[in-house]
Amino acid sequence: VLALTRAAVHQGDRLAWLAILRAPWIGLDWSDLHALVFNEPDGTVWELLQSGERLAALSEYGLHAIENVRDVLAALVAPRRSESLRELVEATWMKLGGPAILDDEYAIANVYRYLELLEKHESCGSLSDVAQLESMLDLERVSSDINARLHVMTMHRAKGLEFEHVVLYGLGRQPGSGDRKVLSWFDVPDERGEERKIISPVGPRSEIDRDPMHRFIELSEAVKDRHEQARLLYVACTRARQTLNLIGHINLTADAEEYRPPVRSSLLHLLWPAVEPQYATAFAEFVTDSGGDGGGDSRDVWVQPVLRRFESQWQLPAVANIPGTAVDADVGAADAEVEFYWVGTEARIAGTIVHRWLHAFAEQRAELNPESLTRYRSVTRRWLKEMGVADTMIADIGERVELALRNTLSDEQGKWVVRGEGHAELALSGVYEGKVESVILDRVRVDRDGVHWIVDYKTSSHEGGDLAGFLQAETERYTPQLRKYAAIYSAFAGNEARCALYFPLLQTFLEVDVQA
Hints:
It is a single chain. The chain is an alpha/beta fold. It has 3 domains: 2-138, PCRA, domain 4 (Orthogonal Bundle); 163-299, no CATH class; 329-512, Lambda Exonuclease, Chain A (Alpha-Beta Complex), CATH 3.90.320.10. It has helices at 2-9, 14-22, 30-37, 45-49, 52-56, 60-73, 85-96, 105-121, 130-138, 205-210, 212-237, 267-289, 329-340, 345-362, 377-386, 391-409, 412-418, 467-493; strands at residues 163-168, 185-189, 195-199, 240-246, 422-432, 435-446, 452-457, 497-503, 508-512. It has a 5-stranded mixed β-sheet, with helices on both faces. It has a two-stranded parallel sheet with strand order 1-4. The chain has a two-stranded antiparallel ribbon with strand order 2-3. It is extended.
């Protein structure tokens, strides 16, 4: 799911895209991945998936797997207006068959905890810093079945527990020393048994390192840490009922004729008196098998990673229509025509970005200040690049976006719409005229009198002379849509709602009477 997120945020994240192609829902092997991206450092993986030459180099399975999911993956790079990043990632994961990979309800719970974290930290349908999200994930606790047969935990957490079998890894590693302290102190008892602090002097590092008091404190702390490590190791070793498996490495001399004892600060060093005979036996076998030259090539074992993939290409199960939810294709086509009959590609993309910014303004994630718009240009450019907009179009679209935002923030009615109590991009479902309908309300604004306003943003412009005629035509065109919005919202909120259209480029707030 994280790979899907990274791919949606940045089309050029090659590692994320390769992880998606390797996952069980596609399951490309190494040869197919290599054939797809070899010697193409500049092209994105998505671009390579459109290359007939690259696809022809794939295996029969790989080609079929790609063709089966390419339309689903296209959603990650397609322009989107109001869909949140969480909604996009979750929908793509579902369509790819992500839930079929999970083993139990705990894994499912962890996925949805991730999606909730993503929803909390995304901004305007994207992430400003994916690395920050990954750092937050490191702090999250993962759910697991208390009856699971395998538990992974720290030595400290294992205190008081018992297991049939215990495996301790990495015993030969040198533990981290941590950051050096600016100020060091040590608690020692005096002659009356009371705790007293010994504090090292403060000064340049070169002088402090030569100070005997500082050296005493550091050595004392090191001894304490060593005793604590030994205590934790004892705790871990005594958790086993049947078997205790210790795994740790040692190094060989340069000529590979002898082995070196473990690093003194490692946990394996504490166990060395008890386990050295086993290492000596293993080293003798190593020398014998390698013919005495210490090369060890005959003992090298290459293990192929397990490739998990669906036995057959996964497809969404067919679901019968719920009564009253059948979609009228003609109605959908009419809505699409109403929404975009007047716009070209550039205007439509500009409208998408304007909606994102107005959403951010309404949720107070961006400053309501026209002077701040110059600082937002880089964000707008990044969004346009993520949507696949050509460099030659970015400047013109960016100017249109900034003009719409500047008009909104310099217009009293515009500021009233995006500022104050209400909802932004409110997604609702309800029954309207006997059918289940899902809608997204650009803005719900509650005024000081408690009146609920449904405001639909329209980023169209009008350069002709009959502005009143244009606005009247827009009112007639969108009245049925706003009537549906009002009915569904009123059922949700229990309040009657008034409706309006707001045109940022025209600085026009137009109330629409939706009473039939």
